[in-house]
């Protein structure tokens, strides 16, 4: 006897058990609320660190753009430029962070693009994720889940060149609060639809 896999139907049914799309908690996450070029911070954001041009970075729309505006974290050697935003959060949930980033200018040493999540009141570091350089003008998607957070507000900070003198660009940022128990439990009928047809038993005569 032989076994045959059915993958198309199973994949379609799996899409039914994922959680509903959560709201993006970030304001001006694609930087389209600003008229490029702007110096330093973008609308709804706070900038930090010491930058070169323009200011501590800025909203640009030029040949490096993926689609419209983006934010350029342009730093000076030895300093880290950052862009951050405080968002309201439901304690007991976790944060999913996604978006696009790209290296724009290469430095001379090892470095990384970093995202930090801190408590919005105490500034205590809750989570941190590091991402490697992408290659010049090579927009790359990132996706990061924190663990469960117990803060009512959190600050999400995007930091350029932790390490060497590299400049980074960011765009289309998303921060979503996810309830760990929000994903629907598959029913017995759905489990049957998913499981039973995966392997078909076919007898040879």
If you had to describe this structure to a student in words, what would you say it looks like?
The protein is mainly beta and 205 residues long. Helix content is 7%, strand content 43%. The chain contains 2 helices and 13 strands. Helix 1 runs antiparallel to helix 2 (188-195). The relative contact order is 0.24.
Task: Summarize this entry quickly.
Helices cover 7% and strands 43% of the residues. By secondary structure, it is mostly beta strands.
- Across the major sheet, the strand order is 2-4-5-12-7-10
Total number of strands:
13
Task: Give the helix level as a range of percent.
Answer: under 10%
Low-confidence stretches: 1-19, 184-194, 196-205
Count every helix, treating DSSP H or I runs of 4 or more residues as helices. Answer: 2
Dominant shape: globular
Structural class, by secondary structure, is mainly beta
- The overall pLDDT average reads 77
Biggest sheet, in brief?
6 strands, antiparallel
Give the N-to-C terminal Cα separation.
9 Å
Rg over alpha carbons: 22 Å
Q: Order of helices and strands, N to C? A: EHEEEEEEEEEEEHE
Q: Report the portion of residues in β strands.
A: 35-45%
